[in-house]
Amino acid sequence: MADTFNYRIDHHGSLVRPAVLLAARDRAADGAPDAGALREAEDAAVKEAVVLQRKLRSTVVTDGDMPRTDFRSAVLEGVSGFRRTGEETGGLTRWVADSLPKADGPLLADRASLLGELTLIAPKASLPSPAYLAATCFDPEAAGRGGPASARELGEALAEIIHTEIQLLVSRGVRLIQLNNPLLLAHTAGEPGPAGALSFEDALAVDALALPSGKRPDGVRVGLAPGWAAPATVDRARAERLYAAVPVDRWILPYDQGTDAELDLLRALPEERDACLGAVDASSPAIEEIDTVMARIDAAAEVKDLEDMALSPSRGFEDVAGRPLLSAEDQNRKLIQVETLARYCWGNEF
């Protein structure tokens, strides 16, 4: 059994933004003179998100990504060296690194302190992984103009910044930190294709650099979400290499489709690592049948101790502000379903 705190009812961090917050952000983008109005709207949305999570009995609480425009923004908008382009890739605004990044101050830690003031539930923060940002923001043309010479160099600079931020988050009371790298699972495919500007080995090395070394403080855990969907087939050796090279405490894995590949990803996971199963589809409003999901969880329990697992939706509900995957009502139904499933698995012992 892994020696971990199993924050059993989890979610990726992003929640559906209320209309009043989106309107405030639009006004700020249009140059509205009251600079404090957006911050007030963000703080109000965070407080509402905390109340929601308390009502739904989540075992972690996040700020719902309310203060950010997408799941990468804490870093891209909080450090120097990046430039927003007019392009979109995969539904995300394209950013490129014109120079090696430098932090302008805390990325999430100041905001995270508010969570501890609002609830006794364990605060959680989510950050994009440095390898993901390096793979998607490296621009070879910028290298010729004095920018990072390689994606690996960019990733190492980002890893140092995120490493420092994780330590600061922990000092501010955050108990669970999730790094998101949606590209990593592509590397574990039976026939892996290109996954950004970093090789598999470089991506593993960069993300590992972001992790604090040594024993975690009591109750503190760092997790990694390596992708929102499992590949069609999984190369067991490559999956094992992934888990061995990045020593996080928890792997947040897709587990909502009932495929053999999802179970193969779990089979490759070392015994000493936690698994958070994304057992509820965050992109579909249809509510999963309890018996169907429990059958999948039973299959997972045959290869991994149930005491070392947690449950969550498969991904964030609104990774880009203003582009929710579900309505707020459907999101809440999905979060309730996660709690219901958790109680089927563990009763009331969270």
Ends apart, CA distance between termini: 16 Å
Q: Which H/E pattern describes the elements?
A: HHEHEEHEHHHEHEHEHEHEH
Question: If helices are DSSP runs of H or I spanning 4 or more residues, what is the number of helices?
Answer: 12
Find the count of extended strands (DSSP E, 2+ residues).
Answer: 9
Share of helix, binned: 25-40%
Structural shape: globular
Structural class: alpha/beta
Q: What ranges have pLDDT less than 50 throughout 5 or more consecutive residues?
A: none
Defining traits:
39% helix, 350 residues, 9 strands, seven-stranded parallel sheet
Description:
The structure is a single chain. With 350 residues, the chain is of the alpha/beta class. It contains twelve helices and nine strands. The protein has helices spanning 19-29, 35-55, 73-76, 109-118, 130-137, 140-143, 151-171, 200-209, 236-245, 260-267, 290-301, 328-346; strands at 60-61, 79-89, 92-103, 122-128, 176-180, 221-225, 250-254, 274-280, 309-313. The longest helix is centred in the N-terminal third of the chain and has 21 residues, at 35-55. The mean pLDDT is 93.
SSE layout:
Layout: H1 19-29, H2 35-55, E1 60-61, H3 73-76, E2 79-89, E3 92-103, H4 109-118, E4 122-128, H5 130-137, H6 140-143, H7 151-171, E5 176-180, H8 200-209, E6 221-225, H9 236-245, E7 250-254, H10 260-267, E8 274-280, H11 290-301, E9 309-313, H12 328-346
Parallel strand pairs: 1-4, 4-5, 5-6, 6-7, 7-8, 8-9
Antiparallel strand pairs: 2-3
Helix pairs in contact: 1-2, 5-7, 5-8, 7-8, 11-12
